[in-house]
Amino acid sequence: MKRIRLVCAILSTFIASGAVGDTPAAPAAPNTPAAEASIPFADHDGIYNWQVIDDRTVLIQGQNRKWYRASLMSRCFDLRFAERLGFESNPNGSFDKFSSITVRGQSCPLTSLVEAPPPPRKVKANKAAPSPTQGAASPAQ
Questions:
Q1: What's the number of domains the chain is made of?
Q2: Cβ–Cβ contacts within 10 Å for residue 122, how many?
Q3: Global pTM?
């Protein structure tokens, strides 16, 4: 009987502390890493677009129009100047952190692939409107 009372007392303390029940999950820490992603069907036109950020980072857009940040294991030479990239997918056809990018014959393995916001749009420079004095003919004297 004493054991039952002891167990009930421990359980009621445990429940009162909020460890059990319908308590909401604790908020994530601010510096938690993003979940790893995967681009399906990368070997069959699954990659729609890409943009180089620097020698170790590439933004990749999948056919679903989501953007992903690919972080490379080390510096990938000529990445900033490449006009085309090769995407080496897994045997199942997906592109993830175990895949690699090929630049001019150099294989650059990834360390992570996470969802990212789209890159900022480039702002086109507006043509300057001619000032009223530029196009007007000078008055005859």
A1: 1
A2: 6
A3: 0.63
